[in-house]
Amino acid sequence: MKKMWIVLLLVQCYLAASHKYPDPDAKILSIKATLPFASAMTNPHNITPFDHCETNVTPPTVFKIPEYEINLDLPAEDRWTKLVSDKREKIIALIESIKQNCDQLFGKSLFWMVNEFLPLLTQTLPAEYRQELLGISSATGLSVGEITLFNVFYEFFSVCTSIVAKSEEGVLYHGRNLDFGLFLGWDPANHTWLTTNLLKPLVVKLNFTQGNKTLYQSISYAGHTGILTALKPGKFALSIDERFKLDGGYVGIVEWILGMRNQQWISFLTREVMEKCTSYSCAQKELAKPPLVAPVYFILSGVSPSEGSIITRGRNDFNIWPLGQKHKNQTGDWFLVQTNFDQWKKPPFYDDRRTPAIFCMDKEGNKDVPQALQNVLSTRPVLNKLTTYTAIMSAEKNMFEVWIQSCPDPCWPW
C-alpha cells in the first residue's frame, strides 16, 4: 500500500510538470533553474563547504524579534488573531511566493490540489488545532488549504542543525539553526532562497500562557501553530530536525487522509509535550512512544548534567542517543550534534554539516558553551543560505536567545 502511494504521488508530480512543459528538455531546464547548482556551477567561488571555525561571533542586534502572547484560555479561533493580523501582508507574500515556485516546478495543478483537498485534511485534525487554523484563515483572508499547508510544512522542507552541550560546571545549553525553504525558489542573481528570505520577517518569539502564567516559550513563524523550537523554564528545552526517509511525511499524510489516524503530527505532538510535561523524563517518554505522520529527530535537554539526548524517530520506532555517547570522529563527550542524518551513519558528501560542527565544538571546548554555540552555529556550512534563525537556550538558566541569520557569499546553498 505504501509503495503504491509513493508511486502515485511521483506520477502526479511528473504529470503536473509534463502538463506545463510538454517538451522534456524545457521541463528539465525549468527545474534546473530553481536549483542552486544553476548559478553555483558558473560561480564556483560562491560555494564554500568548510574551511575554518568562526570565533568571537557576536549576534547581530539589527533585527529585534517581536514577542507575542498566545493565551490558551481564549477560544482556539481567537488565540492567533493579533499576531497574524500584524503579519498578514508578509504571510500572504510568503504563500504567493510558494505558489509561484510550485507552479514552476509542477504546474498550477499542485495548488489546485492544495485548495481542493487540504481543507478535507483540516477537518480531520484534532478539534483545538483545527479551530486555530480556521481562525488564522479568517484573520488573514487566506484559504484554509493554504494555512493548513503552512502548518504541515515541516513534514516536507526543513533542514536543520541542533546541538546540546554541557559546560564545565554541568550546565546544559541547547543551540539550533533552523534552515527552511529547500528548493523553494532560488534567486540566481542574489544567491538566496526566496522562501527563506520571506520567512525571516515572520520569525517571532511566543509566550504560551494559561491562568495568567507562562507555560513555555517558543520561536516560530507567524501563522505556524506548532512547535519547532521551545523552552520550558526550569524543566527542559526542545528542538526538532527533519529526518529524510522514503517512508516519510508524504506517505503519512496520504495514510491520514485515507483514514489511518492513529498517528500524531510532529509539531502538534511537540506542542502537547510542552504544555503537559513538567520534566525531562516525561518529555523524552512522550516524544518516543506515539506513531508519527513523519520520521523526525527530537533533540532534548533538561536541567540535570545527564539530561541530554537525541531521539531518532521512525514513524513507528525510536532510538535514543544520550549525552556522553560520541560519534566516531568526536573527541569530547560533553556535546551532541544532530543534523538531518542518522548518527550511526556517515553523512552524505553533498550535505555534511555534522563533521564541521563536531570538529569546531571539539576545538572550542566547554569553558564558555554559549559562545561556543554562537561560533559553531555561525560556521559555514552549519550556517548556510537556508538558515533563517539561530537560537540558544538553557532550561536551568532560563536562557532563550534568538537572532535572524544571514550567510553572505561565499556560502553553501544548504
TrEMBL record:
InterPro entries: Acid_ceramidase-like (IPR016699), Acid_ceramidase_N (IPR029130), CBAH/NAAA_C (IPR029132). Residues 160-345 form the Choloylglycine hydrolase/NAAA C-terminal domain. One of its GO terms (cellular component) is lysosome. GO terms for molecular function: fatty acid amide hydrolase activity; N-acylsphingosine amidohydrolase activity. Its EC number is 3.5.1.23. Signal peptide: none annotated. Keywords: Disulfide bond, Glycoprotein, Hydrolase, Lipid metabolism, Lysosome, Secreted, Signal, Sphingolipid metabolism, Zymogen. It is an enzyme of class 3 (hydrolase). It is found in: Lysosome; Secreted. One of its GO terms (biological process) is fatty acid metabolic process. Residues 64-124 form the Acid ceramidase N-terminal domain. The keyword Signal applies. Pathway: Sphingolipid metabolism; Lipid metabolism; sphingolipid metabolism. PANTHER family: ACID AMIDASE (PTHR28583), ACID CERAMIDASE (PTHR28583:SF1). Belongs to the acid ceramidase family. This is Acid ceramidase. It comes from Frankliniella occidentalis (Western flower thrips).
